[in-house]
Amino acid sequence: MAIHVAILKPEYLRAILDGAKTIESRMTRTRQPPHDVVEAGERVFLKASGGPFGAMARVAKVEAWDNADESVVRDIWRRHHAQIGGSPDYWKSKLDSRHVTLAWLRDVEPIDVGPTYRVASMRAWYVLEDADTPVLDAVLTDGAIRNGWVRVPAAMRRFPTGPARLLMPDGVVLDSQINARRHIGGRGWRRYHGRWGNRAGDIVRVVAVGAGRYRVQFLKRDGQA
């Protein structure tokens, strides 16, 4: 599965975080990402144009049109304006679009980091490998809880082996290690699993915030902290 970086105006990013905007739309005259490259279930990191990352979300559903015309864009405007946003002038500027992608967003969360990518002039959407993600959602097993570790997939480039400083949910910093078996270990895990009532199927979210530095969050299997 791919991950994505979407660049958008700050006001649209705020609207997504507020829950007012639930569809991200891309309408262009030429074929450009995310057309034909974004799929339901993939993660999108949302970045303000000229500013920082502000949110991440999952794609719930995708609809796309090739060889669209003015009638298609007007119909989307009529049916989905409330979920997409945009002024009348914006919509009028899109009437000659030929390639249209609508991505419904779910599980929107604020975040202040995102993947590393090579900036290309005028590009507003990037498709990256899943290994580039700075966010690990590790599903806990009974063995992980019992032995006090979290497993990191080998391909994840933002999680190299070596020392790891973990900022835990209560503000405590734990000095740990990502060992050769790709486990983040440490005696402190067991204490936190007990304090937070973690069970098999719950999630440990580990966010890479710098070289060897990670922020930890515990989520229940329903996604709630």
Features:
225 residues; alpha+beta; six-stranded mixed beta sheet; 5 helices; 20% helix; 38% strand
Can you characterise this structure?
With 225 residues, this protein is of the alpha+beta class. The chain is 20% helix and 38% strand. It has a six-stranded mixed sheet. A five-stranded mixed sheet has the order 7-12-13-9-10, with no helix packed on it. The mean pLDDT is 94.
| General shape | elongated
N→C terminal distance:
25 Å
**Total helical segments:** 5
Averaged pLDDT, please?
A: 94
Number of strands: 13
User: Helix/strand/pairing class, anyone?
Assistant: alpha+beta
Quaternary organization: single chain
Major sheet: 6 strands, mixed
Q: What proportion of the residues form beta strands (DSSP E)?
A: 35-45%
Largest sheet strand order:
2-5-4-3-1-6
The portion of residues assigned to helices is: 10-25%
Order of helices and strands: EHEEEHHEEEHEEEEHEE
Q: Rg from C-alpha positions?
A: 20 Å
Q: Low-confidence runs (pLDDT<50, min 5 residues)?
A: none
Short description:
This protein has 225 residues and is of the alpha+beta class. It contains five helices and 13 strands.
Write the layout of secondary structure elements.
Blueprint: E1 2-8, H1 10-18, E2 23-28, E3 43-48, E4 53-65, H2 70-84, H3 88-93, E5 99-110, E6 125-129, E7 135-139, H4 142-147, E8 150-151, E9 162-167, E10 173-178, E11 183-184, H5 188-196, E12 203-210, E13 213-219
